[in-house]
Queue: 2 jobs
Job 1
Amino acid sequence: MSEDTRDIRMSKEDICAHLGDEYDRYMGAIVPPIFQNSLFTRKTINHGYSYTRVTNPTIEIAERKIAALEEGEAARCFSSGMAAISAAITHYLKKDCHVICPRAVYVPTKAFLSSYMEKFGVEVTLVAGDSVEEIEQAIRPSTTLIYLESPLSNVFTLQDLGTIAALAKSYGIATIVDNTWATPLFQNPLKHGIDLVVHSASKYLGGHSDILGGVIVGNRDVLDSIMNNERSLFGAVMDPHQAWLLIRSLRTLPVRMKQHEANAMQVAAFLEAHPRVAAVHYPGLPSHPQYELGRKLMSGYSGLLSFIPKGDRQQIQSMMKSLRFFEEGPSWGGFESLINSPGLWVNEETSRESGIPIGLLRISVGLEHADTIIGDLDRALNEM
């Protein structure tokens, strides 16, 4: 994008395709170069760069695109989703403080808060997340942060972001939301008053199962502080080549997400009607208990959902292993369809503690033809 188009109001498709590319700056290259260097010297010119651990032009292009998509002032890219999550959380922590977090949140996030930060005196109260009243009852004088993930990545319950953000502000408490599931195309938590948004760029933003990355978006002053402290001091900056691959992926994000959504809507409806399925968890279904809240918060739905087949553990595992077009793995958001089994081996006690129902399977609906995905699930379920 040239200098004279910077002030034009851009659609999200335009942002993904062109924002930050600055063709004039890079000799007309339609794909900006990779600044794959650690050091920037400044003997003859003061260009504002010194060391890639702090800033790098390639990384900045990805950051500008994602900040604009999230309608935030700034973004900072990290070496992984957990690097971004832990940096955002740490920014708001202090010795002996208290954090509120949904119990079904991403497991490494819960481990970071409940186990790792315990040695610094940080206390965590785990809540269901769908009740604002429960969250308010959990607030203490030492509460500094309410950490959210909407929808939650296994059970897909939502949190009322606007109401919780207003509640937190009234107590002087910060809020962070993991927005990886919805992507910036379908949900913008900053517009609801949330302080920081985090993403695992390894999922839909990357979309090709070939990069690790994370992003934080929010107020520029806060992000500058995180860049100079949590990111720079922990050394968790994204590699320039990963940033270049992320820029590549963002160009196709709108078309990919439309297909993920279209496929997932068909798959969810199929599973809901199947006689061998006990329950389906997907915010895009009108039967979802928070469907109206989802329509208020989001403009679309991604391809990650879960369901509970009717059968014992052995039957469910055999069904999962018999799938031909689903690979088995814990990640999601790539081009490929994946299945994972977070509820297959939990007992009643761990199910209550984690919020994950017994027998629950999670699927990431990929970009294959919807009929192929549905046919594979139908055959495997009928053979149980």
Job 2
Amino acid sequence: MNSSVANTARLIGAGLRALVVLTVLCGVLYPLAVTGIAQAAFSDRANGSEIKDTSGRVVGSSLIGQSYDLPRKNPEDPGEAARPDLRWFQPRPSGGLGANTVNQRYSLLVSGATNKAADSPELVQQIKDAKVAVVKDNTTATFTVRPQDVPADAVTSSASGLDPDISPAYAELQIHRVAERNRLDVGRVARLVAEHTEGRTLGFLGEPRVNVLELNIALRALTKG
């Protein structure tokens, strides 16, 4: 009996020691080491790839898309459709986003796609309506947008609904409208887009892209200058 109690006590003691050691290794030392390496080698990414404006204020992340809409006439009306602020470059549609109904303290968005099939009549109509809006919004007195000129990312959302980038084609399509709304030279706005166009990662991964938030921060600085 005494031997059995001693064995049990020894096993419990060994288990507790293993628990303490593993807790210190996996729960304290390993996270500290990984965090330290991340902060030392990839500080920007480890902190959320934050983007700051010209005043040094954090205005978002390069990994998460934002909307650029006019203030709602009636903020209390959830059914009021958002209207894009056409002074700014617009991102991809975010039809997959919805209000977070769990956390009411913060105005959060839920990442997600529409999950509609490619032949869904509702999706097809949404795309047609979006194309009409893109053509109308971006046609100016000196520049006419044709339906066939509208790129796919101008009328479709990404799988996450939070894509921060648009194609160079969609950015270029918006140049004349942005220049007109901000009373800027078209050539200067075109150079701004070219300066913020990134090529394929490592030269072959993905597609060329333009980060909308970074582009609009540069545009704001240009309009203030």
